[in-house]
Design brief:
With 325 residues, the protein is an alpha+beta fold. The protein has twelve helices and seven strands. The chain has two domains: 92 residues, Beta Barrel (OB fold (Dihydrolipoamide Acetyltransferase, E2P)), CATH 2.40.50; 189 residues, Hypothetical protein af1432 (Orthogonal Bundle), CATH 1.10.3210. A five-stranded mixed β-barrel has the order 1-2-3-5-4. The structure holds fe (ii) ion (2 copies). One fe (ii) ion binds next to loops.
Length: 325
């Protein structure tokens, strides 16, 4: 008898296949059947790092619907059926799994850069900071194993740039490098402050985003946002360091609060020091460059010469590799 593959990835599923698998719940909606007499069904989007598929629970949806949430990982028994030319999973059994038993790498894609290499670079940048108080702040924060684990695993976004595991680390390194070393006339800038600001500017994302079965906003993330969450985290650490100069602390706090650059982009204050202006530009540079890379790569893999419309960039991208002329 043909052996069934254990826990197949979404991209491996074929029409007609019987599936026992583990997937992340990206969307969950209870809907009414067109014939309202029939009651409700569950409309789901299930995914892993290879892709995602729509899924349906036709029977007994009202009683199943509260047994798991968006962002959970579920074990399903299902069949792959084709509807209007697209595969979907029709689920017989669905059960939420314990968060601890789920390796995030199975469900969420990871940074193209090896994480060990980025961790090494992070420590090199931290060690390059000469200011004793900023060095102490960074060493204490990153020396905390729970914090370090979260920071080096977190994505930088749910949908846009660096939206994969270790994306926060990759993005923060880019911003720290660009801001402290890439600015014109950088000799006159406080490069230690820019290094610390670059590394810490998005630190609130470790509380804003959760990544179990997929990347989701947490309640604190939705209600407070990463700018405020990061400010709160860094402020708590600053208060524990005896003698930290107040003006330096305030300047670092200003970098965190102003890094989005505009009120419309969620910055409570505009960048009002040279370092804050440089940090904001470095953040934009890293974000836009990553977004252009992700959008271009997606279209390149599909073989298209143009990408779809990219909301963040406000345009479609041309893919020279895929042009025949
Ligand atoms: Fe940010
Ligand atoms: Fe950022």
């Amino acid at each position: 008898m043909k052996q069934r593959k254990v826990d197949p990835y979404i991209s491996e599923l074929r029409a007609g296949q019987r599936v026992h698998g583990v997937y992340g719940v990206q969307r969950k909606q209870l809907r009414t059947f067109r014939d309202e007499q029939k009651g409700y069904y569950l409309d789901l989007q299930l995914g892993d790092r290879s892709g995602s598929l729509p899924a349906r629970v036709w029977d007994d949806a009202s009683s199943v619907k509260d047994s798991f949430d968006e962002g959970d990982v579920v074990r399903v028994k299902a069949t792959v059926q084709t509807y209007r030319g697209q595969n979907q999973l029709v689920i017989d059994e669905i059960q939420a799994l314990d968060e601890e038993s789920v390796p995030a790498e199975r469900f969420i894609a990871a940074s193209p850069r090896p994480v060990e290499q980025m961790q090494e670079e992070l420590w090199q940048l931290i060690e390059s900071v000469e200011d004793r108080f900023l060095a102490q702040l960074l060493t204490e924060m990153f020396g905390d194993p729970a914090f370090y684990r979260k920071y080096t695993l977190a994505p930088a976004a749910k949908k846009v740039h660096h939206n994969y595991l270790h994306g926060l680390l990759e993005h923060s390194l880019e911003v720290a490098r660009l801001a402290s070393r890439g600015a014109p006339d950088s000799g006159n800038l406080n490069t230690d402050l820019l290094m610390a600001g670059g590394i810490l500017h998005d630190v609130g994302k470790i509380e804003e985003l959760a990544c179990v079965g997929s990347i989701q906003y947490t309640e604190a993330g939705r209600l407070l946002g990463h700018v405020v969450l990061g400010f709160r985290m860094v402020t708590a650490r600053l208060q524990n360091i005896d003698g930290f100069p107040q003006s330096q602390a305030r300047h670092l706090q200003h970098l965190l609060l102003s890094h989005h650059g505009k009120h419309d982009y969620g910055a409570p204050v505009l960048p009002q020091t040279r370092e804050a202006v440089v940090l904001h530009q470095a953040d934009m540079f890293s974000g836009k460059a990553s977004q252009a890379a992700i959008t271009t790569e997606k279209a390149r893999k599909k073989g298209s010469s143009w990408s779809g419309y990219d909301q963040l960039l406000g345009r479609s991208m041309w893919i020279p590799d895929n042009c025949s002329e």
